[in-house]
Specification:
Two copies of one chain form a homodimer.
Chain A lengths: L1 H7 L3 H13 L1 H12 L11 H17 L4 E5 L6 E6 L7 E7 L19 E3 L2 E3 L7 H18 L5 E7 L7 H9 L8 E4 L11 E6 L1 E10 L5 E2 L10 H10 L22 H10 L3 H8 L12 H4 L5 E10 L8 E2 L2 E10 L5 H15 L5 E10 L2 E2 L5 H14 L4 E4 L7 H6 L5 E5 L13 E3 H20 L7
Parallel strand pairs in A: 3-6, 3-7, 7-17, 8-16
Antiparallel strand pairs in A: 1-2, 2-6, 4-5, 5-18, 8-15, 8-17, 9-13, 9-14, 10-12, 11-13
Chain lengths: 475, 475
């Protein structure tokens, strides 16, 4: 009986039943997503660990509820991995669906029009932290699986769901699991939905991600805070030192002024750059979605190129001295800054870390000391646009959104994705459903619900198409 | 009867009675100061307004309690001025005793070994925010007045006590009162104890103060926070812009690199600089009290000169982006910094403000906007070391501490003091009792109690000496 269903699931009728099921249950899907977004699962903040765990349990429970027979909450040194499997037929391919249930911090909290963890539908958007990054996008695939399981009692192909709680803080537990026990994640392809599409109804396949290396620099000057009247002009101020270090990180051409930094950055052919110009966003479009008045960055490259095939260095935060109301005459004893590098193809985060540490040691004045603490490290990802699994994804987009997908590069990073590619050897499909205006990482994050449903339809079509294609059968 | 006491109060016996009274009530004085320090009267923080008012009322009440017949809590647009008078004899000089009951903010709070508003005596030091700046130093004079009033029923000279609650945030209410109603503050001299002495038992008279101008710069870039992966390398980061602005504020010689900034700075004679070398702290001593590993600042000047006769620019605080635990991939929409200028003799804060605003407008890139909000402005103060009231103070130090005072310049600022000098034409005595290690404005602020009592004795001697000197009689 199950075998019979399994056969029927990939048929036109099976796919139609699944898509009809989605239309019937659309309101409930939004309610469930709202429930999911309500968890303040900020993985990077230790005080939220309890909430992160509750969110993981809710998700695991939900996966059981939709009919997945094997669901585990995998303990780690950090937050648990939610792992679910449906593997019935060794002759069919296995797809690893990756997502993350942790979310970014919410500050500046006062800029949210609705509280970030009281999600709210306004018009056709669901507002809330994590609505699109990545709870909503992960849920796209969960609902596609549910639609097959509830209408055909089976899935078209074998599936692993691997949903982690540490993506926004570096994925170290999942990386460890992938390295230590790769056999548990054995698959033939991997799909990730944690990126953008250019406009509503305009699907996109992402074919490169930048790598990343983050660190925090703490500069220490005088033994304790000093009166800036009494000692102003005498003691070097850690805040000023940080300002000087930061100002020296870019040259006049907008290039990162760290010796050796560009030595491995891949150059792209004139052909590829022309392709990017043709399909990618214009400078104007990028500025509009950034809400910035003028472009900035490395001369000689379009803004789209600067954001994708060129590396970037960003000051994510800086803190020191008095930050309350009114003035305070103080030379702070210490100050710190959070810095993030985005790495272009062929850059290695370890090498970047080495050059940066050397650079800071070289430019730091003898009046202070500095401590650099490294954090997230991820290698850049480049995907072959002509792989069969990408062809399946193109086909799925056509049927799910009724439109040809565009091929885009992303400036973002999904730390663990490079491991799926390098360690597990999986071909990747990066299929994003967030809009540039959805505010990933910003206040008032939202998910555009027509993209949610377009995404579910596309995921249903993709699962079926993977089952149909001979070139994706396991050998 | 009162007149007879009034006559006797300046006699050797009258002074001895007052000093004996202090010895008898020393423990109570410390308890009362502890009570005073307990009020969290942080004038710069609006949410503390109630506490500041309670502190002012306590102080006014205390002044009535020691026997001052005329005490007023003067309402202002900000925090009240505590004003008390004892004026009996038009033939005797009138001394204006200035102090402030507001205190600095306490952050970083976690660095305090005892809670800042639970004052505690450890050894011979009283720890607590405001213990020396300025509650303890103000109390020195209050207790001297009490000693005369309780032993002779009179004071040697006429006295105004003017204690404000806005010194740490710019003294604007008191300045307004001085400008609008100078007659209410008519006096022949002014004493201020809100500065340092070099070591225990080593009294000091301060003969110059730097001026001050403070401001906050807020830099705004993109309309809202951006994902630093997606937009890193494309949008100019307000934190980076602040770093660049800050780095450009000093040149390679440690001079402030704002056009026109030095044009009015007074040059001092070789003789005066030699005097400063002789009596002032060495570079080593200043570094020791700063707890700094190496000197910094304007080349061509000693550290003592850099801290007193040369101007300085300090970054008091900087804030922007993500400051919580872990990383966050964000380009913040805005960032802000608090900057303080200390001004040398003959510099005008208004001119400094103009040059600085021009400079920022000139260096700011077109990718961002900036808003500069000016705050505290105070002119520098220079005092004639040979004025008769200074001679009276030297004499008082000899008798109060048993030792000759040293003459020091201070790098600090007391905004209202320049107004006493310029608007009211009062000769100034700046007689400080805080140690360089007492941590004014820093965590673990304290007051060295032997200096508290040495100060009270000196204040008693000073009041008597002012009464005795013919050259201080009003004409």
């Amino acid at each position: 009986m199950i075998e019979a269903q399994h056969a029927g699931v990939t048929s036109f009728a099976g796919v139609q039943r699944a898509r009809e099921y989605v239309r019937m249950h659309a309101d409930r899907f939004v309610r469930e997503l709202t429930e999911f977004v309500r968890f303040p699962s900020i993985g990077a903040q230790p005080q939220r660990a309890g909430e992160v765990l509750r969110c993981a349990k809710w998700l695991a429970n939900h996966l059981s509820g939709i009919g997945l027979p094997w669901v585990r909450l995998v303990k780690t040194d950090g937050h648990p991995i939610v792992h679910a499997r449906w593997t019935r037929d060794a002759n069919r391919p296995t797809l690893l669906i990756y997502g993350h249930y942790d979310v970014q911090p919410v500050d500046p909290e006062k800029e949210w029009r609705h509280p970030p963890f009281h999600p709210k539908v306004v018009g056709r958007d669901l507002y809330g932290r994590g609505a699109c990054d990545d709870k909503g996008q992960l849920f796209v695939h969960v609902k596609a699986l549910e639609a097959f399981l509830k209408t055909s009692g089976a899935l078209p192909i074998n599936v692993h769901c691997v949903f982690e709680g540490e993506e926004e803080s570096g994925s170290s537990s999942l990386e460890k699991a992938l390295v230590d026990r790769p056999q548990e994640f054995a698959a033939n392809a991997c799909i990730v939905s944690d990126m953008s599409m250019p406009a509503p109804g305009r699907p996109a396949i992402t074919y490169s991600l930048r790598g990343s290396w983050s660190c925090e620099i703490e500069v220490t000057g005088p033994r304790s805070d000093l009166h800036s009247g009494v000692f102003g002009g005498v003691a070097h101020n850690p805040l000023q030192v940080l300002g000087e270090v930061i100002a020296g990180l870019h040259d006049d051409l907008g290039r990162i002024d760290v010796p050796g930094f560009y030595s491995n950055v891949r150059s792209w052919s004139a052909q590829e750059r022309a392709y990017m110009r043709r399909v990618g966003p214009s400078d104007e479009a990028l500025l509009r979605s950034a809400g910035a008045r003028a472009g900035w960055g490395e001369s000689g490259y379009s803004l789209y190129e600067r954001a994708t095939i060129r590396p970037a260095l960003t000051i994510n935060g800086l803190s020191g001295g008095y930050q309350g109301a009114g003035p305070k005459s103080v030379i702070p004893a210490r100050a710190s800054t959070k810095i993030n590098f985005r790495l272009a193809a062929d850059q290695d985060p370890k090498e970047v870390e080495r050059s940066f540490r050397r650079h800071v040691a070289r430019v730091l004045p003898p009046t202070v000391t500095a401590r650099i603490t490294g954090d997230i490290a991820a290698r850049p990802v480049v995907i072959d646009r002509e792989h069969p699994v990408i062809e399946a994804a193109i086909d799925a987009c056509r049927r799910g959104f009724g439109r040809e997908p565009v091929f885009l590069r992303s400036g973002g990073t999904i730390p663990v994705v490079s491991l799926f590619q390098e360690r597990l050897g999986l071909p990747l499909v990066l299929l994003g459903f967030a809009l540039p205006t959805d505010g990933m990482h910003a206040p008032n994050e939202k998910f555009h619900l027509p993209n949610f449903f377009g995404g579910i339809a596309t995921s249903i079509e993709f699962l079926a198409e993977m089952a149909r294609r001979r070139d994706l059968r396991p050998r």
